[in-house]
Amino acid sequence: MSNQFDVVVIGGGPGGYIAAIRAAQLGFNVACIDEWKNAKGGPAPGGTCTNVGCIPSKALLQSSEHFEHAGHSFADHGIGLKDLSIDVAKMLARKDTVVKQNNDGILYLFKKNKVTFFHGRGSFVKAEGGAYEIAVAARPSRPLTAKQVIVATGSGAGACPARRSMRSRSSATTARCASRPCRRRWA
After folding, report:
1. Mean pLDDT over residues 9-19, rounded?
2. The pTM of the whole model exceeds 0.90
3. Domains in the chain, ordered, with CATH?
């Protein structure tokens, strides 16, 4: 496998993976580097939106909406339900399945469009002779070179010194709800 590319995209979120695919469609030899990991440590391209933001939120919202319809709107159609309950663990499992399908879909699009994917953290090593050398943490002995580099690493929340305690609570809540049901509130 060659380490030389026309374009290397650092970041596989909504901006990065689309840029990589489009560059490949335009005839460039393209690589995309992304470090997101799924629960098993495998690649999870798609960035914040796919992994912890938009997509999982919408999956949970859809499940909640179905629950609400079953509890309220079905009666208008002559459908009665007794002992309606919610299984939060199953809802979270469905959300995880939806996220994985999106991750796998992006990897499929890379393959289909001949984008070479590297799982790991990309960083600049040097610029020399009109090209850039980029290291991939997962393969330190084999840096990539590219004429053009697109940095699409997304963003993160900045820390406000007076609000550090809020940030740590928010991060803890995100991790807790992503990993297990919040039984005290929903059971």
Report:
1. 96
2. no
3. 4-156 (3.50.50.60)
